[in-house]
Automatic annotation (TrEMBL):
Organism, scientific name: Candida maltosa (strain Xu316) (Yeast)
Source superkingdom: Eukaryota
Pfam name, any one: Ubiq_cyt_C_chap
PANTHER family: UBIQUINOL-CYTOCHROME C REDUCTASE COMPLEX ASSEMBLY FACTOR 1 FAMILY MEMBER, UBIQUINOL-CYTOCHROME-C REDUCTASE COMPLEX ASSEMBLY FACTOR 1
Entry similarity comment: Belongs to the CBP3 family.
GO cellular component, one term: mitochondrion
InterPro entries named among the record's database cross-references: Ubiq_cyt_c_chap, Ubiqinol_cyt_c_chaperone_CPB3
A GO biological-process term: mitochondrial respiratory chain complex III assembly
Name of this chain's protein: Ubiquinol-cytochrome c chaperone domain-containing protein
Length: 326
C-alpha cells in the first residue's frame, strides 16, 4: 500500500474512441506528478482553511428535484459474484479451463461495472433524510456545491475520468472493455434512479436527460484530458467549468483543493500495476487523507508484495496476462 496519513440510454459507446490519445505509456503521461512538492495538507484541510465568504450560486429556476426513494446500490449479481461456492465453483473453474476463457476480459464486468462503478457512485451520493458520508460532506459542505442529482452526475463523471486514465494504460483490448463496462453501468444506473428515486414518469424526459448527460460526459473527458496533457491551470479550469458549474464567485482555494484531490488519485493509480488495478484493488483516497510520495525502493517493495500475493492465485478463474511490473 502507498503511505497514506490521516488529516483534519441504454448502451453508451466507448468514449475514449473519440479521444484516441495514447495513454498506454502511463508513466510518460503522469510523470508530471512524480516530483510535485508535497504538502502536509489534505484536500479537505486545504479547502477548509479558506475564510472567503460563500456566495450561493443560482443554478436553477426552481429547487432541483430530490430523491423520494432509494434504488439498490449494486445489483444482487454484482454484490455476490465472489460468493459462489461448492459444485458451482468447481463447474465454473472447469468451464474456464476447458474453453480457455479470457478471464481478464470477463473480469472487466464485475470489476469495472461493479467495484469501480460503486467507487464512482458513492462519492457524492446523498439522500435527504440520511446523514452525508465523509466523501459527500467534502463536496457539499466543504466545497459548498449544490445538492442535486445533476451535481452528483458531474462528480461521478470526474471519478469515471480518473479511472479511465488508468484503464487506457491497460493493454488496449482490456482497457476498452473496462471503460465500456463502467460507463454502461453508470448510465444504466442513472436511468434507473431517475425513474425510481426522482419519480420521473415520462420516458421521453428521461431519454432527453440521458442524452444531455452523455454529451456532458464527452465534453468533460475532452477537457480533463486536455488538462492532463498540458498543465494544472488547464485542468483546474476544466474542474471549475464542470464540477463548480462555472461559478464566477467560486473560492479558488476550493478549486485548488479539488485539483490536489485529482492529482493524488492519479499518483496512486500510476503506482499500481496493471494486475492489481485489473483485479479491482484500487479505492479512491478520501479527501481528508494525504498521499505521501514514495521512493523507488518503496515502489519496488509494493510490486514484490503484489507478485507474492498473486503467486498464490492458481485457479483457472484467477488467470491473468496483465503485467505485475507496470
Amino acid at each position: 500500500m502507498l503511505r497514506i496519513s490521516k488529516g483534519s440510454t441504454s448502451s453508451i459507446r466507448l468514449l475514449s474512441q473519440s479521444t484516441r490519445s495514447s495513454f498506454q505509456n502511463k508513466r510518460s503521461i503522469l510523470s508530471k506528478y512524480e516530483k510535485k512538492p508535497e504538502l502536509d495538507l489534505s484536500p479537505n484541510k486545504l479547502a477548509s482553511e479558506s475564510h472567503i465568504p460563500f456566495v450561493k450560486q443560482n443554478l436553477y429556476k426552481k429547487e432541483p428535484r430530490q430523491p423520494q426513494a432509494k434504488a439498490p446500490f449494486l445489483s444482487e449479481q454484482e454484490d455476490n459474484y465472489t460468493g459462489i461456492s461448492g459444485w458451482r465453483e468447481k463447474l465454473g473453474q472447469f468451464v474456464v479451463s476447458t474453453f480457455g476463457i479470457d478471464m481478464d476480459k470477463s473480469r472487466s464486468g464485475p470489476v469495472a461495472g461493479g467495484k469501480y462503478f460503486g467507487e464512482c457512485k458513492k462519492q457524492a451520493l446523498f439522500y435527504p433524510d440520511e446523514p452525508l458520508s465523509d466523501s459527500a460532506r467534502f463536496y457539499y459542505e466543504t466545497l459548498k456545491l449544490p445538492q442535486s442529482f445533476s451535481q452528483q452526475v458531474q462528480i461521478m463523471i470526474l471519478h469515471y475520468w480518473i479511472l479511465s486514465v488508468r484503464m487506457r494504460a491497460l493493454p488496449y483490448k482490456y482497457g476498452k472493455e473496462y471503460q465500456q463496462k463502467l460507463v454502461d453501468r453508470i448510465f444504466s444506473d442513472m436511468e434507473l434512479r431517475m425513474s425510481t428515486e426522482l419519480k420521473i414518469k415520462s420516458g421521453r424526459t428521461i431519454e432527453n436527460y440521458m442524452k444531455d448527460y452523455h454529451t456532458q460526459l464527452l465534453g468533460c473527458v475532452l477537457s480533463y484530458d486536455e488538462g492532463l496533457m498540458t498543465d494544472d491551470i488547464t485542468l483546474a479550469s476544466a474542474l471549475w467549468r464542470n464540477v463548480f458549474n462555472g461559478n464566477e464567485n467560486v473560492d479558488l482555494r476550493h478549486v485548488e483543493a479539488l485539483l490536489m484531490y485529482v492529482r493524488s488519485q492519479l499518483y496512486v493509480l500510476n503506482k499500481m500495476t496493471d494486475r492489481a488495478f485489473g483485479f479491482g484493488y484500487f479505492s479512491f483516497v478520501p479527501a481528508d487523507q494525504i498521499v505521501k510520495l514514495i521512493s523507488k525502493e518503496e515502489e519496488e517493495m509494493i510490486k514484490e508484495a503484489t507478485k507474492k500475493e498473486f503467486a498464490g492465485m492458481t485457479l483457472p478463474s484467477q488467470q491473468s496476462v496483465l503485467s505485475m511490473d507496470e
